[in-house]
Amino acid sequence: MAVTVLFLGPLRDLAGVESREFSAPLDWEGLISSVAPEVAEQLRQARVNVACAGKVLADKASLNAQEGDEVALLPPVSGG
Predict the structure, then answer these.
(1) What is the pTM of this model?
(2) CATH number, domain at 47?
């Protein structure tokens, strides 16, 4: 099994896909090195959040996704 990474909003446009599977376990450095450079650049910004297994991580560098986990990459939301 693997970890499913969901690319949401503008990150989906940069990645060119809605989701992608990566080998488990997946940590922050593994994620950064596995995605396109344009996506990695966005992920490093403080305004982008990461959720793992349905919980937004307070520190995205603490990512430790295991087999079957879903990781959502959450771009900032705008609106009024």
Answers:
(1) 0.92
(2) 3.10.20.30
